[in-house]
Amino acid sequence: MSPRSRWSDLERPPLNAAALRTALVREGGPYTGLTVTESTGSTNADLLAAARAGTAPAGTVLVAEEQTSGRGRLGRGWSAPPRSGLFFSVLLAPGPAVPAARWGWLPLLAGVAAATALSRTAGVDTALKWPNDLLVTVDGEERKFGGILAERTAGRDGDPAVVLGIGLNVSLRAEELPVPHAGSLRLAGAPVLDRDPLLRAVLRSLADWYTRWADSGGDPAASGLDAAYAAGCATLGRQVRAELPGGAELHGEAAAIDGDGRIVVVTGDGTRHPLAAADIVHLRAT
Fold first, then answer.
1. Which run of H or of E encompasses 141?
2. Where would I find the H helices in the chain?
3. What is the pTM of this model?
4. CA distance 228 to 183
5. With CB atoms 3.0 to 4.6 Å apart as the test, which of 18, 94, 172, 268 could cross-link to 98 if both were Cys?
6. What number of other Cβ atoms are within 10 A of residue 95's Cβ?
7. Pairing verdict, β 60-64 and 33-37
8. pLDDT tens by residue, 164-221
C-alpha cells in the first residue's frame, strides 16, 4: 500500500464526503455545498479565490484532509499530518440585516460553536482564549488545539462576505505537535476521535449559532452569543499580557468582552482598555 494512500493509517481513515453532504447540505439550509479535498495549501485561500471568481455561493464548505500552508492570525503557519485534524472553511454572507460593525463577532461565534460541539461530542472539556483560540487541558496545562481565522471578501454577487476558517488538532500525538506547547483532543484524553461525527457536530453547531446571530441582526446580547462566549472564555478574570500591533504591551486583568467583541483589559491604575486586535498571553498566578 502506498504511504500516501488514504487508508495507509488505519487510525486516521478518510472523511466520508458523501455522508457529510447528506447530513449537512439541504435545500433551504445554511450550507449549500460541501467538498472534501485530499490536500491543499489553505482552505481559506482556496475559498477566498472561489468567492472572488464567483464560483462559490454563500454556504459553501471546503474541507481538506491535509493543509500544507494553513494560516492562523498574523500569518502564522498551521500544519499537521494528513487526516490528523479538521481543517475547513465556510463562506458566509450575513447580508445587510447585520451591520458590518458586528461582523467582528464571527470568530467568537465560531469559537462558541466549536467548543460546545466538541465538549459534547468528543467528551472532553474545551475552553476559549480570546479572540480565536480553542484550549484543552493536557497534563494539567492549558494548550491550544484549535484556531479560527476570519477574512472578509466579496461574494458571487459582489456583496460583502466572510470566509471563516477553523483548524482543530484531533489525533495528533506528542511527537507530531508543531510546537511542544500545542495540544490535541487525543492528548487531552478525548474518548471520541472519529472525525466524521466531530465535523458534523461542529458544522451543525456553527449553523445554529450563525442563524441565531444573523436573525437577531448580529446582536450579541439578543442572540445569547455574548453570554455563551463569556461563560466559556478562559481569558476573562485572568491576569494577561496584551501584545499590541506595533510592539506595545499592556498588563492587567481581562475584565470583560464589550458589545463589539473587544476584550477589555483593566490596568493597575484602573484604566479600561478595549482592544480589538492583540495577542493575549495568559499569565500564571503568582
1. strand 141-154
2. 17-24, 43-53, 106-121, 195-215, 225-232
3. 0.93
4. 23
5. 94
6. 12
7. parallel
8. 999 999 999 999 998 999 999 999 999 999 999 999 999 999 999 999 999 999 999 9
